[in-house]
Amino acid sequence: MNLHGLRLFYHVASMGSFTKAAEILMISQPAVSSQIKQFEKELGITLFNKNGKRFTLTPFGEAMAQKAELFFAHELQLEQFVQDYKTAKKGRIRITATYLPANFLIPEWAAAFKAENEGVEISITTRNSTDAFQELIHYKADMAMYAGGSEQQMKEIEWRQLFQDEIWFVVSSRHRLANCTVSLEDVMKEPFIMREAGSSTRERLLSLCHTHRVTPPKIALQFTGLNEAIRSVMTGYGVNFVSSLVVKEYVKTGQLARVFVDIAPVKNIIAICTRKGENLPPVVKEFIRLCMESSNHGIVEE
């Protein structure tokens, strides 16, 4: 079907006038009449009845006009869909994240993004670093947000570093090591309360022991959630090795205390990860842009 002819017909039918349709389309009235006749010829069906200088729609023309109205309404919706996609107003973002960004960074950033892009669907899953990278590599997520060491960087993944934060040794404020400065060897003699094997911070602790040739600590209690591990430490038992972003408020209020260890500060890299070489959808690019701007503008502290 000649879509140009259909468009001309639709405008004439909706305006009830060849002249008004010509004005809207910014072509001459004779050109409209000529092309409508050509369209009728191509269809092999009459669309208009002529009565002197007046034209009325035939029964088929009326039905055709209704169909054309729906057709062009869908065309407008399709154009809007494309425009929304290009401007990140529509779409879906699947985020897999390690515990730290999932609980302390993404909620604020996702809420800010949704406030400006209500039509975007955002799903967030919390995983340990190993599982998060596997989901990204196997296309189960559009991006991963990671907190940990650079040693886990993989060749298939592109990293965008947002900032770094220190990892602290913390105990209950009633613990005998609270606010003390000790050697790494001494603190490792204490029982530790940590998340499960595979978590990036636990791997960093073991790597730290290996680097300094210190015997790794006994993991006395293991939790799948970080909050549970922290609250267990608050009772007075054990040491936790954890991001300062997670515990700084607890330290400030005296519920936890730092143990100062005589080594160089250990830092987490907070990074957004995507598959290397992939052309990201505009909606994902826009979310990454917001996260990077937010971290640069001090929404999070380094």
TrEMBL record:
Lineage: superkingdom: Bacteria
PROSITE patterns: HTH_LYSR (PS50931)
GO molecular function, one term: DNA-binding transcription factor activity
Keywords: DNA-binding, Transcription, Transcription regulation
Keyword tRNA processing: no
Domain HTH lysR-type, residue spans: 1-58
Entry similarity comment: Belongs to the LysR transcriptional regulatory family.
The protein's name: LysR family transcriptional regulator
